[in-house]
Design goal:
The protein has 17 helices and 28 strands. With 725 residues, it is of the alpha+beta class. The protein has 3 domains: 204 residues, Aldehyde Oxidoreductase, domain 4 (2-Layer Sandwich), CATH 3.30.365; 162 residues, 2-Layer Sandwich (Aldehyde Oxidoreductase, domain 4), CATH 3.30.365.10; 320 residues, Aldehyde Oxidoreductase, domain 4 (2-Layer Sandwich), CATH 3.30.365.10. The chain has a 7-stranded mixed β-sheet. A 5-stranded mixed β-sheet has the order 1-5-4-3-2. Strands 14-22-21-20-15 form a 5-stranded mixed β-sheet, with helices on both faces. Helix 2 links the parallel strand 4 and strand 5. The radius of gyration is 27 Å and the shape is globular. The chain starts with a helix and ends in a 17-residue tail after the last helix.
C-alpha cells in the first residue's frame, strides 16, 4: 500500500499543473501533534485559552476545527501576537468541548464556517492573549513593587529596569490575578507576528501521514457498521431480510433506524438499516447482499427534468421581491429596443469530502466518547447527548483533524453520529460507522439547484438602464436560506450601478436535504451574474473589464480589486481563435475577489484551463501564506464542481454517486494559480477561506466564450460541446 509520504513525493515530481511545495522550518515554528486532542496540557493555566509550563512552552487551546483558514495556526498566531511569546514556544491543541459546553462556554464560539474565524472572532481570541499578557505583567509588578505600566512583556520575558523574569516564573501568580478592565487588542500597525507569511502547523503531520482523523480511530473491542438509507431521501424502509446474511463471516447484527416525526434536520435519523460486523468490509458486503424493500413515496417521481419544468413555469410568475432599486425596471425593459436575456442553471452539487462520512462512539454506563468530523467541535457532544438522553457532562468529544468539510457542518453533523451512538448503546461496545462513498454522496446535504432568468435593457451609452432577475431555488422544505445564501444572493446584491433593478425569487420545496457549500449561494450565482455582466458589456460594445470599472465607480473596495486585476491579469479580448481570457469579480463573506482566467480550447472542444490570476481584498490579512493557500484551494474546489461535477437526479434519487460518474478535477487538470492582494485596510475585515472560489468558474466560462464563441449557461461545463471551426 502506498504511503501518504510516497504519494506526496510522487505528486511533486509528476509534472502536473499543481505542485505541492512547502518549507518546514526547523526549531523556529510552533508545533502540533498528530493527535491534538491527546496532547498533555500540563502547566499553569492563565485562562481557558492558554497555559504556560515550567520550560516556558505555551499551550494554546483551539476550539475550532482544523480546516478553512487553518484554525490551529491562525488562532495560535492571534494569541501569540498579543501574548508576545516566541512562535517556537507555542504548542497548539484542540480545546476540551466538555468543558466548553458544560462550564460556561468560555470559548464563546466553536464553529468553523462562513470564513468567519478571523474576521469575526479575532477580537475575543486576541483579547485572550492580551489579557494573559497583562496578568503576567501585573504579577511581575506586584513581585517587584512597581506599576504594571512599568513592566514590559516581550518574547516570553518580563522586564522592568534591571529586573527580569520569564513568563513561566510569573505564571502561577498571574493565574490568581483578576484585571479591573480587559485590555484593548492591538491595531494592525502594532503587529509583530500577524501579517507575516507563516506555515500552517498541521502541514508536517499531514504530509508524513501521522495526522489522525476521525476515520483513523481504533478502540479495543470496536466493531464496524455500514448503513443504507432509502435511495430517495426520507423514503420509508418497508422490510429487510437479515436471515439471508446473518451467518456470513464476521456479521454480528442488523439494526433498524427510524425517523422521528417532525425531525428532519441534517443530523436527524432517516429510516435506514445498518449491518454490524467485525470489519467494515464484511459489514458492507453483507449489507449489499441483504434484501431490502423501500417505499420511495411521491418523491420517487422527481427528476432534474421535472424541476426544470417547474422552474420554466415560475419564470413567468412574479416572485418574492428580494431587492428593488429605482422604479419600474420591468416597464423600462418592456419598452426598450435593446434587451439582453439569458436563462442560467446550476444543478445539485455534493460536498465529496476526502474523508468519507464517519463517526465512532463508545457508550458506557459512566461516560460516552465521540470521534466525529464536524465544523463545530461542540456539535457531536450535543448530538450524542440528545440521541442517548445522557447528561452532556458525561459526553466527551475527541476533536481530530477533519478530512474536508466545505459546508453543511461537516460529515459528522449528518445522521452518522446519531447512528454510531445508537449502535454503541444497543451493542454496548465501541462502534465505528462509515458511509460508503455512494451512501455519502446520495445522503449528503447538497448544494441546492437554481434556475435563474436575467433580463436587462441597454441604453444609448451601451450601459444597462434596467435589470430584472427571477430565480427559482429548490431546497428542503422550501428553506429560504442556507446560512447567508438565498436563491439570488450575489445577483440581488450585485454592485453594478444600474439605475432601475428588480430582483425576485421563488423557493420551491424539494425532498432532497440541502445545506451550505463553500461560499454558499455565491458559488452558484457568481457563475450566473458574472457571465451575464459580460453579456451586457458585449451587447453595449464595452470591454468587459472597462465595463465593470465603469459600473462600480465610487465603490472603492471593488475598484481597488479591478484596477489591480487590470495591472496583473493581462486581460485582453484580442487572442487567436481557440484561446481566451475571461474575468469575473464577486463578493463573498465580506471579501471581494477578482479572477482572470486563461483557457485554450481545441477545435474538437478539448478544454484546458491554463491559468487563473486572483486579486483579493479582505480588508486585512493575518497570514499571507495561509491566505494564498486557501485561495488556491478555493479555485480547485469550485472549478472541480463547475467543470466536471453536477449531481443527476432521476426517479427521486441521485444516480452518479461515485467518482466514476461524479467527476472532480484531477491533478493534471489543475491550472496555475497566481495570487495577489489589494487590501483596503480601512477598518473592515473579510473572510479568506471561501471568496476565491465563486469568481473562478465565470472567469473560465467567459474565457471559453472568447475562445469559441459559445456561451455556457449551465454546469457542468464539460457536458457542453465546446468544438469550434
Amino acid at each position: 500500500m502506498i504511503s501518504r509520504r510516497t504519494l506526496i513525493q510522487t505528486i511533486v515530481g509528476a509534472g502536473g499543473g499543481m505542485i505541492l511545495g512547502f518549507h518546514i522550518p526547523e526549531a523556529v515554528a510552533a508545533v502540533v501533534s498528530a493527535k491534538p486532542w491527546t496532547t498533555p496540557t500540563e502547566g499553569v493555566e492563565i485562562n481557558a485559552w492558554l497555559s504556560i509550563d515550567a520550560d516556558g512552552a505555551v499551550m494554546i487551546r483551539v476550539p475550532h476545527t482544523e480546516q478553512g483558514q487553518g484554525a490551529l495556526t491562525s488562532v495560535s498566531m492571534m494569541i501569540a501576537e498579543e501574548l508576545d511569546v516566541p512562535w517556537a514556544d507555542v504548542r497548539a491543541v484542540f480545546a476540551d468541548m466538555n468543558r466548553h459546553v458544560n462550564y460556561g462556554e468560555e470559548y464563546i464560539v466553536t464553529t468553523t464556517h462562513g470564513s468567519q474565524l478571523v474576521r469575526l472572532q479575532h477580537p475575543h481570541i486576541m483579547q485572550a492573549g492580551a489579557s494573559a499578557r497583562e496578568r503576567l505583567k501585573a504579577a511581575a509588578a506586584k513581585a517587584w513593587g512597581v506599576d504594571r505600566d512599568d513592566v514590559t512583556a516581550r518574547q516570553g520575558m518580563l522586564t522592568s529596569g534591571d529586573m527580569s523574569a520569564r513568563y513561566a516564573d510569573m505564571a502561577t501568580a498571574a493565574a490568581t490575578i483578576t484585571l479591573d478592565q480587559e485590555p484593548a487588542i492591538k491595531t494592525p500597525d502594532q503587529w509583530w507576528l500577524l501579517g507575516k507569511p507563516t506555515p500552517r502547523l498541521d502541514v508536517p503531520v499531514k504530509v508524513d501521514g501521522s495526522a489522525q482523523y476521525s476515520i483513523d480511530t481504533r478502540l479495543d473491542g470496536m466493531v464496524y457498521a455500514a448503513v443504507k438509507s432509502c435511495p430517495v431521501p426520507w423514503g420509508r424502509l418497508v422490510s429487510y431480510d437479515f436471515e439471508r446474511v446473518k451467518d456470513r463471516p464476521g456479521v454480528i447484527a442488523a439494526v433498524e433506524f427510524k425517523a422521528v416525526d417532525g425531525r428532519s434536520e441534517a443530523a436527524d435519523l432517516q429510516n435506514s438499516v445498518a449491518v454490524v460486523a467485525d470489519t467494515w468490509y464484511r459489514a458492507k458486503t453483507a449489507l449489499d447482499l441483504m434484501p431490502i424493500e423501500w417505499d420511495f413515496g411521491a418523491a420517487g417521481d422527481v427528476s432534474d427534468a421535472t424541476q426544470a419544468a417547474t422552474a420554466r413555469q415560475l419564470h413567468d410568475v412574479p416572485g418574492k421581491v428580494s431587492n428593488r432599486v429605482g422604479a419600474d425596471a420591468t416597464g423600462i425593459i418592456a419598452a426598450s429596443k435593446r434587451v439582453v436575456s439569458g436563462d442560467y442553471h446550476r444543478p445539485y452539487e455534493t460536498h465529496a469530502r476526502m474523508e468519507p462520512i464517519n463517526a465512532t462512539v463508545s457508550v458506557t454506563d459512566t461516560r460516552v466518547d465521540v470521534w466525529s468530523p464536524t465544523q463545530d467541535q461542540a456539535a457531536p457532544l450535543k448530538i450524542v447527548a440528545d440521541q442517548l438522553g445522557r447528561d452532556p457532562k458525561e459526553v466527551y468529544v475527541h476533536s481530530a483533524f477533519i478530512g474536508g468539510a466545505f459546508g453543511g457542518n461537516g460529515g459528522g453533523a449528518t445522521a452518522v453520529t446519531r447512528q454510531a451512538a445508537e449502535l454503541s448503546r444497543q451493542l454496548r461496545r465501541p462502534v465505528k460507522v462509515i458511509w460508503a462513498r455512494d451512501e455519502d454522496i446520495m445522503q449528503d446535504k447538497q448544494r441546492p439547484p437554481v434556475h435563474t432568468r436575467l433580463t436587462a435593457a441597454i441604453g444609448d451609452d451601451g450601459l444597462p438602464t434596467a435589470f430584472h432577475s427571477r430565480a427559482v431555488w429548490f431546497t428542503k422544505d422550501a428553506a429560504e436560506s442556507h446560512g447567508p445564501a438565498t436563491a439570488d444572493v450575489a445577483i440581488g446584491t450585485m454592485p453594478y450601478l444600474v439605475p432601475s433593478r428588480l430582483h425576485e425569487r421563488h423557493n420551491v420545496a424539494a425532498h432532497i436535504p440541502t445545506a451550505t457549500h463553500r461560499a454558499p449561494g455565491v458559488n452558484q450565482n457568481g457563475f450566473i451574474i458574472e457571465q451575464f455582466a459580460d453579456e451586457l458589456a458585449l451587447a453595449g460594445d464595452w470591454d468587459p473589464l472597462e465595463w465593470r470599472l465603469e459600473m462600480t465607480k465610487g465603490l472603492e473596495p471593488w475598484q481597488r480589486v479591478l484596477l489591480k486585476l487590470k495591472e496583473v491579469g493581462g486581460f485582453t479580448t484580442n487572442l487567436p481563435r481557440g484561446e481566451g481570457m475571461g474575468i469575473a469579480i464577486v463578493e463573498d463573506h465580506n471579501s471581494i475577489c477578482g479572477a482572470c482566467a486563461t483557457v485554450t480550447v481545441s477545435r474538437r472542444g478539448d478544454l484546458r484551463v491554463e491559468k487563473v490570476v486572483l486579486v483579493m481584498n479582505s480588508g486585512y490579512i493575518i497570514n499571507p501564506l495561509g491566505a494564498a493557500e486557501q485561495m488556491e484551494g478555493s479555485v480547485c474546489w469550485e472549478l472541480s464542481h463547475a467543470l466536471y461535477g453536477g449531481l443527476e437526479l432521476q426517479r427521486g434519487r441521485f444516480v452518479n454517486t461515485n467518482f466514476d460518474r461524479y467527476k472532480l478535477m484531477r491533478i493534471h487538470q489543475m491550472p496555475e494559480v497566481e495570487v495577489h492582494f489589494a487590501m483596503s485596510e480601512d477598518g473592515w475585515w473579510g473572510g479568506i477561506g471561501e471568496p476565491a472560489g465563486p469568481p473562478s468558474p465565470p472567469a473560465v466560462a467567459n474565457a471559453i466564450f472568447f475562445a469559441t464563441g459559445r456561451r455556457i449557461r449551465s454546469t457542468p461545463i464539460a457536458s457542453h460541446d465546446l468544438s469550434w471551426s
